[in-house]
Amino acid sequence: MYTLPVALYAPGRDAHGITDGWAAAVPVQVHGWAASGPDAQPVEADRRPVTSEREVFPLAVAGGPRARWRFPDGEFEQIGYAIDYSNGPWWNDGSAVVVYLRRVEG
Questions:
Q1: 5-31 pLDDT, tens per residue?
Q2: CB–CB of 38/101 below 8 Å?
Q3: Considering only CA atoms, which of 60, 72, 80 is closest in space to residue 9?
Q4: DSSP strands (E only) in 2-96
Q5: CA of 11: how far to CAs of 5, 6, 22, 90, 103, in Å?
Q6: What predicted TM-score, i.e. pTM, was given to this entire model?
Q7: Which of 22, 25, 35, 81 could form a disulfide linkage to 5, CB 3.0–4.6 angstroms apart?
Q8: What is the CA radius of gyration of the chain?
């Protein structure tokens, strides 16, 4: 098991109308992570120039759209909601939750 800090997206407005913001990071336990392949692209993925994509496998549904996950090699932003495959008719080993992440430059 690994623990990664995750900061949830918390939009708000300041005097200049800026809406981006993130809450303080909280630790989330994960089974592990891997680089995403081209067949693992979620439908709602934005197609800006992407330097790196990752899949992370938390112990339970975690994060949310635009949540920031911190890894030893940098920060990645979550694409959409976590996908929970644990409610199907087939047995699973407990790693049935998948979160898609990306790191964008530009």
A1: 999 998 777 777 777 788 899 998 888
A2: no
A3: 80
A4: 2-7, 26-35, 50-58, 68-71, 74-78, 83-84
A5: 19, 16, 7, 38, 20
A6: 0.74
A7: 25
A8: 14
